[in-house]
Write a structure and sequence with these properties.
- With 125 residues, the protein is mainly α.
- Among the domains are: 38 residues, no CATH class; 49 residues, no CATH class.
- It is 51% helix and 5% strand.
- It contains seven helices and two strands, in the order αββαααααα.
- The longest helix has 12 residues.
- The chain is rod-shaped, with a radius of gyration of 34 Å.
Length: 125
């Protein structure tokens, strides 16, 4: 029986092949509110409890919404003030850009995108 020859290079290669592959490091993300870093999995849990995020959400909820109208003259401004009495309709029209039956035709010429969409209502027929 031949004698085994020990080669140092073979021993090192064999040890490398038997070792389990190294795990890739988990991706980390910084919280945009407090700056702490978390894994992507832990970020959702953190943002549910983050004090600075909760303070930001409360401040955003209290911020008043403003709507901008281009005012041509005082008569139009007066019509806009009358029209703004129904805020729900105003918000709905600004978001959707549609025209509704309760929309005043005089004001629609200046603030609604749909002034020509419905000529029957526009001319009061």
């Amino acid at each position: 029986m031949p004698k085994r020859v020990h080669d140092e290079n073979m021993a090192d290669n064999a040890a490398d092949e038997e070792a389990p592959p190294a795990k890739a490091p988990a991706a980390t993300v910084a919280c945009e509110f407090c700056g702490q870093t978390f894994t992507t999995r832990g970020m959702t849990r953190h943002q549910n409890k983050c004090v600075k995020k909760q303070a930001h959400d409360i401040a955003a909820a209290k911020k008043p919404r403003c709507y901008r109208f281009s005012i041509l003259n005082e008569g139009v401004f007066e019509n806009i003030l009358k029209f703004l009495g129904n805020q729900t309709l105003t918000k709905l029209q600004m978001v959707t850009g549609d025209r509704y039956a309760q929309c005043e035709p005089e004001l629609a010429k200046f603030c609604c995108k749909c002034e020509n969409d419905n000529p029957v209502i526009l001319h009061g027929l």
